[in-house]
């Protein structure tokens, strides 16, 4: 699964499926690491949810003021992603700072860039943590704007901004692309 199916899901742009396959595989391939990260993340659940909720509320208020259509989702990095980052960078879980992410979904590309300006006016962006995959999409067709900010309670939070079509393709892969073309 880790050698074939998860990379294939990634190649096809099926982010949600890739994450699920990686987390399930980690549970059996690295049970100790899985258990340790899983338990520590459970201990952060209430705090993380509070920060995501406040972030969504503050950003939502600004988007309403600017009459921008939006949907905001919040999430934490999945377990395998955390495990890989810890291994690659020699970090403990306490040293991983970009565990939280908020995704803003809107109607069009113009609104994506306007939302980026609003995000950077609310929270301080982190140098070197901005990627524009709308202007230059990834090889697998993934499109989105990513920025990391010093957010609520000084928690580093990744903000992803994309259109509804980009979101469907990012979550479901290239098959979702045809839904929009028909």
Explained architecture:
This protein is of the alpha+beta class. The protein is built from 7 helices and 5 strands. Strands 1-2-5-4-3 form a 5-stranded mixed sheet. β4 (145-150) and β5 (156-163) form a beta hairpin. α1 runs antiparallel to α2 (15-29) and α3 (31-65) crosses α4. 26% of the residues are buried. The mean pLDDT is 91.
Quote the beta fraction: 15-25%
Question: What series of H and E elements makes up the topology?
Answer: HHHEHEHEEEHH
The gross shape turns out to be globular
Can you count the helices?
7
Rg of Cα set: 17 Å
In which order are the strands of the major sheet placed? 1-2-5-4-3
Q: How much helix, percentage-wise, in residues?
A: 40-55%
Q: How many β-strand runs?
A: 5
Q: Which residues form runs of ≥5 with pLDDT under 50?
A: none
Give the class from helix and strand content and strand pairing. Answer: alpha+beta
Average residue-wise pLDDT: 91
Biggest β-sheet: count, sense, barrel?
5 strands, mixed
Distance between the termini: 32 Å
């Amino acid at each position: 699964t880790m050698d074939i199916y998860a990379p294939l899901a990634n190649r096809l742009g099926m982010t949600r499926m890739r994450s699920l396959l990686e987390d399930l595989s980690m549970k059996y391939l690295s049970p100790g690491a899985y258990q340790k990260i899983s338990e520590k993340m459970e201990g952060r659940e209430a705090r993380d949810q509070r920060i995501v909720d406040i972030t969504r509320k503050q950003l939502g208020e600004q988007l309403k003021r600017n009459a921008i259509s939006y949907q905001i989702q919040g999430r934490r990095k999945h377990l395998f992603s955390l495990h890989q980052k810890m291994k690659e960078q020699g970090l403990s879980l306490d040293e991983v700072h970009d565990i939280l992410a908020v995704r803003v979904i809107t109607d069009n590309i113009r609104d994506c860039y306007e939302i980026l300006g609003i995000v950077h006016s609310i929270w301080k962006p982190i140098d070197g943590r901005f990627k524009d995959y709308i202007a230059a999409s990834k090889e697998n067709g993934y499109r989105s704007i990513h920025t990391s900010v010093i957010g609520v309670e000084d928690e580093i939070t990744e903000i992803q901004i994309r259109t509804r079509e980009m979101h469907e393709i990012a979550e479901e892969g290239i098959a979702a692309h045809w839904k929009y073309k028909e």
